[in-house]
Amino acid sequence: MLDYARAACSVGLWASEKLLCEKFFPKDAPLLELGCGAGRISFGLWTDGWHDITATDFAEPMVDAALAINETKQSGIKFAVADATDLRYADESFQSVIFGFNGFLMIPMPSRRLVALREVYRVLKPGGVFIFTGHDRSVSRNIDYWAAERTRWDSGQQDPALDTFGDYNHLTESGRMFIHAADSAKIQAALESCGFQVELSAMRSELTVESEAVLDFSDDTRFWVVRK
């Protein structure tokens, strides 16, 4: 949690996020952020001219942190606690949805991630765009780790706390955090099964050059841009 609160103030909007939002998200239409953390993306978008933003996170302490920061920023962002697998918004409420910094792949179990994709599809207007990121284990700098992990799973020696190959629990300042490192073909198949059309799938490093603050804060990640 501390990392995300600091990032809202010190890292800000990534150049890649700004590039894709400017290309695919109209500034005069309602936008939903899922997994907003302490507001890093939403505050950046507000500053750059998106002024109909609803920013949500599953964790109430993160939303509280965003609200505390907003006492200084005084934006008009609507912050709320929300579960991406059970969104309390009407069908076709948003033109744009963003789920940044690998938040989508912090949802455990493929079945729950599929439910989240269906929820995003439901709340998007026809023609609306969903942007999200996720670790791609096929191009990860931890590719040797995943080769060894594959051997462990094949021999039945994997961590019993994990549900599927690609799951990973890593240690942070705030304790252990779950994330799934994805197989891109499976992500694409899940997207298409929900009705999404893939507009773009590219690693962040292929899109633009990021600041040192961004590179220090996060590893390379795959961007997905999909349309309803």
Describe the structure.
By secondary structure, the chain is α/β, with parallel strands linked by helices. The protein has one domain (2-227): 3-Layer(aba) Sandwich (Rossmann fold). The chain has 9 helices and 9 strands. The chain has helices at 2-10, 15-24, 40-47, 60-73, 110-123, 143-154, 184-194, 204-207, 212-217, and strands spanning 31-34, 53-57, 78-81, 94-99, 124-134, 167-172, 175-180, 197-203, 222-227. The chain has a 7-stranded mixed beta sheet with strand order 3-2-1-4-5-9-8, with helices on both faces. It has a two-stranded antiparallel sheet with strand order 6-7. Helix 1 (2-10) runs parallel beside helix 4. The longest helix is centred in the first third of the chain and has 14 residues, at 60-73.
Secondary structure layout plus pairing:
Layout: H1 2-10, H2 15-24, E1 31-34, H3 40-47, E2 53-57, H4 60-73, E3 78-81, E4 94-99, H5 110-123, E5 124-134, H6 143-154, E6 167-172, E7 175-180, H7 184-194, E8 197-203, H8 204-207, H9 212-217, E9 222-227
Helix pairs in contact: 1-4
